[in-house]
Structures are given as structure tokens and as C-alpha cells.
Specification:
Length: 278
């Protein structure tokens, strides 16, 4: 049954997936809400641009799933929340999963669930909580035929950028990705490496498990499109971008551009034309 749901997630032409992440409000950080203050409007805009999937929480999935028709993007359900994104780690830290997460995903007709695996300087307790979450979720997902996307996140110190700045060291990323695979991930959503040309090492260590790459912080159109081109050349199975879409002046245009790169092998220049023509 997992295979059937994965068929809804990955594009039939290319075998790749573009998942737009708009689950940021789950984490209670004011800066995360830029561009998604009105979720109903945000979701409608993204649906019109037609990515393969939209990543939402249990409380916001209704904006996608209530829309009529068969052609809307698949739902990726975020199933955990944490309080570790500020400039200072709180004295009482948590990474908590919603109850009966896989069952909630089935009820919401999701194609996949997504759960974090954090590696944070000075917070090994959070890594332990994440491992516990994943081990519990795997059993539920196997029972109900729900694919489990694990998101290994290697943080730089929170004091540098409020806890959401990627440590792009390829060794750290590959080691955490390997742990996610060992824990039973059906899909990996991983950090980008500082040197994009090394990303094949992340793909290799995943051992055949599809790898989707996070977008990271907001950058220019050319930078994100060139990075995407480089990642695709390294063998990734897709991308999961959030702020580079939802905080964009033309979210529908950048979505169309990225979809063209993933599924139609568009060049960076052609993709830029799609953004500017939106």
C-alpha cells in the first residue's frame, strides 16, 4: 500500500517530486509566518501552480483537501513540532509528535507523513526524542501503508541564525541521512550541502531511498534555480522548498519554473523566463 501512495507523490513523467512546504506555523516562530499569514489564499495559489505535493499540518490540511477535483497536489502531512528554532535553545526543549500520526494521515488522505531528525549543537536530548518519534511512527506507518519521510536536519549553532541555518558539511549530512535510512525512512528530505557537486554522496548513502532536498533560506531566483539544476545533476529525486516559494513575490511563477526544471528538463534561463512571465 505504501507503493500506491508513493505513486501519487512522484511525477509519472520524471519520477521526481516537488513538495512545497507550508507547515512553518507549527513551530511558533513569528518570522516563519511571512508569506503564509492567510493559509487559505496561500494554498489556493499553490494549487493553481500545481506542484506535486504541498506539506501541511493536521490543522491546515483542510485548505487543500477540501478543494474539489482529482488534480490537486498530494498532501504531505507534517506530524511533529519542536521549540528549538530561536536564537537561544530553551531550557526545556521538546520535539513532539502528534498522537496516532499515521492514522490521522490516513483520515486526511495524505500521500506521506514527514517527521524530523534533528542534530543540534548542545542539544543531544532532542536527537533522542526524534529517534523515539521515528521508531514509534515507523510501526504505525507500516501497519497502515503510509510512507514515512524523515527529515535529517544538521543545525549550525542557534546563536548564529536562530536555529534554522543549515550546516552544509557533507560528512555531517551523510551520517545523519544514513541514520534516517537505518531507522526505516521511506523517503529522505535532507539539507543541501555547501558544495552541490558533492550531493551524489548523500544520494549514495541513502542506498536507493528517494532523496528530496530542502531549499534552506531565501535566496535569489538565479541562485535557487542554479542550485536546483546542480542537485538534479547529482541524482536527487526532488526538492522540498518552502520560503523560496511562499516568500517569493510571484509564488506561482517560481513554482512553475521549478516544476519545469524537475519534470521537463528546462534550463536555468528558460526557468527564469517562466518566473518573470508569471
Amino acid at each position: 500500500m505504501k507503493h500506491y501512495r508513493l505513486q501519487r507523490l512522484f511525477n509519472a513523467r520524471s519520477g521526481r517530486c516537488f513538495d512545497v512546504a507550508v507547515d512553518h506555523g507549527f513551530f511558533n516562530e513569528p518570522g516563519f509566518l511571512k508569506g503564509i499569514e492567510d493559509m487559505a489564499t496561500t494554498v489556493r495559489t499553490l494549487v493553481d501552480a500545481a506542484p506535486d505535493a504541498i506539506q501541511l499540518t493536521a490543522g491546515q490540511a483542510r485548505h487543500l483537501q477540501a478543494l474539489p477535483g482529482r488534480q490537486k497536489p498530494s498532501l504531505v502531512l507534517r506530524v511533529d513540532t519542536a521549540n528549538i528554532y530561536g536564537r537561544e535553545l530553551p531550557p526545556s526543549r521538546f520535539s513532539t509528535m502528534i498522537d496516532q500520526a499515521a492514522l490521522q494521515a490516513v483520515r486526511l488522505d495524505a500521500a506521506c507523513v514527514c517527521v524530523n531528525l534533528f542534530q543540534i549543537p548542545g542539544a543531544p536530548d532532542i536527537t533522542g526524542q526524534c529517534v523515539d518519534n521515528i521508531l514509534k511512527l515507523k510501526v504505525e506507518c507500516d501497519d497502515l501503508g503510509m510512507p514515512m519521510m524523515v527529515e535529517p536536519l544538521v543545525f549550525r549553532p542557534n546563536s548564529e541564525a536562530g536555529g534554522y541555518l543549515v550546516d552544509g558539511d557533507v560528512v555531517k549530512i551523510t551520517h545523519l541521512v544514513r541514520q534516517a535510512v537505518e531507522l526505516g525512512a521511506d523517503i529522505i528530505k535532507a539539507d543541501p550541502t555547501d558544495d552541490v557537486s558533492l550531493y551524489h554522496e548523500v544520494v549514495r548513502v541513502a542506498g536507493g531511498i528517494p532523496v528530496l532536498v530542502r531549499g534552506g533560506g531565501r535566496v535569489s531566483d538565479r541562485v535557487i534555480l542554479e542550485r536546483t539544476q546542480g542537485l538534479l545533476q547529482q541524482g536527487v529525486h526532488g526538492i522540498v522548498y518552502g520560503r523560496n516559494v511562499i516568500q517569493h513575490e510571484h509564488p506561482a511563477g517560481i513554482t512553475r519554473a521549478l516544476m519545469a526544471m524537475l519534470h521537463e528538463k528546462a534550463s536555468v534561463e528558460d526557468a527564469l523566463g517562466l518566473v518573470q512571465g508569471s
